[in-house]
Amino acid sequence: MNRQQQMLDEISMDAELTAEMTGRSAFSPDTMEAMASVPRNQFVPEELLAQAYYNIPLPIGHGQTISQPYMVALMTDLLDPKPEYNCLEVGTGSGYQAAVLSRLVKKVYSVEINPVLHLQAKARLERLNFNNIDCILGGEKLGFIEHAPYDGILVTAAADQIPPALIDQLTNGGRMLIPVGPQHLGQTLYLVDKNKQGKVNKKPLLAVRFVPLLPVKESSGREPG
Ligand code: SAH
Predict the structure, then answer these.
(1) Does ligand 1 come within 6 angstroms of the Cβ of 102?
(2) Which residues of the chain fall below pLDDT 50?
(3) Calpha distance 41→39 (Å, rounded)
(4) How far is the CA of 99 from the centre of ligand 1 (A)?
(5) How many A from CA of 212 to the centre of ligand 1?
(6) What residue owns the CA closest to ligand 1's atom 22?
């Protein structure tokens, strides 16, 4: 069996093992197809190529990491992506999560605060012909207000609390996945649902480990909720 198929099998096994927390014992065929269609070996540093299809996070430089494939599949699946969706990712990193999500939705805006990682990911995604992803250099405000609201938001760095500024960027009926909590105490992946009336429900799912979400220049100006 090739290494990529093994990675996909491990993701399916992890999905089963975490079903009690996530509410999903298997990811949708669409999610698994998206995972199969994105060449992770194009998103990892050359010296780590041999590990590209291991189900583990890997360093990508600048103190950042490309997420564990299972986590990418889980967050993608829990978003319940639909072909007409307008989505936001906070934390482009290597561009891998954006690439996977882009297979399942109309448009992905992906914001990155590190200028070097931003440029690398942008060039990589263009070279690989991911034409429905816009990479944005962030740092002024959290998220990307210009194209809000979004049907789905994935945050791939851990926040201290769920930022009101990102809840504001969700459509009514939209959904966000976000890791919350300080690095030394451990973090929890939250599923944040905004219903048709705009009422927000925050559901803690399972323990995760992400790099911290870095502060932007301009906070939302509101008290954290
Ligand atoms: N999704 C990425 C992994 C993300 S690692 C992948 O698939 O490879 C988290 C990334 O979030 C890092 O690259 C980090 O620089 C970025 N980041 C941290 N704080 C941020 C912020 N406030 N806005 C945008 N990006 C941020």
Answers:
(1) no
(2) 221, 223-225
(3) 5
(4) 14
(5) 8
(6) 214
Contact 122, 143 (CB under 8 A): no
Would the CB of 213 count as within 6 Å of ligand 1? Answer: yes
Is the full-model pTM beyond 0.85? yes
Tell me the helix, strand and coil percentages in the chain, rounded to 5: 35, 30, 40
Pairing relation of β-strands 86-90 and 133-137? unpaired
Which residue is associated with the tokens 């882009």? 102
Q: Which atom of ligand 1 is nearest to the CA of 213?
A: 19
Q: Is 180 in the pocket of ligand 1 (CB under 6 A)?
A: no
- CB of 157 within 6 A of ligand 1: the answer is yes
Domain ranges of the chain: 3-208
Q: Return the closest-CA partner of residue 75 out of 96, 41, 53, 101.
A: 101
What integer pLDDT is reported at residue 183 of this predicted model? 75
Protein residue with its CA nearest to atom 17 in ligand 1: 91
CA distance 62 to 84: 34
Task: Select from 3.40.50.150, 3.30.70.20, 3.30.420.360, 1.10.3720.10 the CATH code of 3-208.
Answer: 3.40.50.150
DSSP designation for 213: P
Interior/surface letters 47-85, b for 16+ CB within 10 angstroms, e for the rest: eeeeebbbbebbebeeebbbbbbbbbbbbbbbbebeeeb
Report the pLDDT value the prediction gives residue 225, as an integer from 0 to 100.
43
